[in-house]
What we know:
The protein contains one helix and 35 strands. It is mainly beta.
Amino acid sequence: xxxxxxxxxxxxxxxxxxxxxxxxxxxxxxxxxxxxxxxxxxxxxxxxxxxxxxxxxxxxxxxxxxxxxxxxxxxxxxxxxxxxxxxxxxxxxxxxxxxxxxxxxxxxxxxxxxxxxxxxxxxxxxxxxxxxxxxxxxxxxxxxxxxxxxxxxxxxxxxxxxxxxxxxxxxxxxxxxxxxxxxxxxxxxxxxxxxxxxxxxxxxxxxxxxxxxxxxxxxxxxxxxxxxxxxxxxxxxxxxxxxxxxxxxxxxxxxxxxxxxxxxxxxxxxxxxxxxxxxxxxxxxxxxxxxxxxxxxxxxxxxxxxxxxxxxxxxxxxxxxxxxxxxxxxxxxxxxxxxxxxxxxxxxxxxxxxxxxxxxxxxx
Length: 364
């Protein structure tokens, strides 16, 4: 059995006293036949990365790593185990957070640093006091602690650049050597990681007569690629925009304040006049603003909501899976979860239901 080809369905046992979810468990299905299967000796399996997946043998037991055939590669020892990237993974023990290699050897032991980020592009952020630096996958310090985080989370590299605060105040991007690649204007309130060669930046102008927020996208050299203007703005006069994924970014004509794919707005009614579409990397609207909610593009498809039903469009805006689901997830590895006929099911990119579970599709 190839464990990487399984559909892993997470379910919750409901507490009869409160009617709310209690213990989490997993059920496994073969994606070809749709039948439920039971991997020998495993209770939980995470997504595979670099041929390994974190797993548990018993509910609430320690985590370790298995290969696609279910062979134990790294013994079950950790409280939590993350995915591998560049041969390194982030793990938790009773002593704290550390980083291991594919042999289970410590690259960075727990308590070595006061904070650790996520491994990306062979760089891991670490914190000493309030200052962040970076080490590589061999635990060699390549950028000494000197920068503040841009937000609550640790800095992370994307497309060769990481967002930080220079001097604890001004937003800037550093390269893999720790040099400032470019600084953002002082009016930049928020910025995000690069995707498809662009990063979105929110610029706020505190003009008493005309206070406003604007979105701009910058290139990896710091040049403004384009500014997003509310050409068909809703009542607020502001727009909302997401990050680029597969060359397209979601955009709306009404500021929601909730983000593009935030779960708490998936079921909420849109604001008056609010519609969503997509722009390309030149800032041109290429999929008209016709939808009540959207997701990001994955596997060539984006989820969209029309009224109370969800479906999927392709990169030209064509509806390829008609809106008939109460809710849908983004596609991952060619599979999406859907709420259909009151139950949680799974579909492929053609819209074919390949797995039906007995779990009721409800929100808590």
